[in-house]
Amino acid sequence: MSLRINSRYLPQLQETERKRPTPDTQGSQNSFQSILNREIQKSNDSVKISGHASKRLLERNIILNENDIKVLGMAMAKADAKGAKDSLMLYKDIAFIASIKNRTLITAIDPQDSEENIFTNIDSAIIVK
After folding, report:
1. Which of 47, 57, 81, 114 has minimal CB crowding within 10 Å?
2. How far is residue 78's CA from residue 82's CA, in Å, rounded to a whole number?
3. What's the structural domain count of the chain?
4. Cα separation of 52 and 56, whole Å?
């Protein structure tokens, strides 16, 4: 059967059933989920140190070892779970200002260089043990 539109004949188009390849949703879901979990875990474990913080650590002869970074990272994870964004982190005798959501140490202050002892633009304080 054909259709007539504006004095022209159009042949009837037959719809063919196309079978689309169906991805193995369970397999791809699991692999995607496992990759996502690994990436989240990596980002949770890592603590970035900003250029400014690196400079301050060098100037003030503050040395952080792998365990220190791990402890600070765990404290950041706890603060993040409580909704902290920018925090004052007190660890040993050092004060850090950290961006919790970016998992980045912004600056480091040792007791000798904290002249005013005033910290602004933070929403939380963390005493790290």
Report:
1. 81
2. 7
3. 1
4. 6
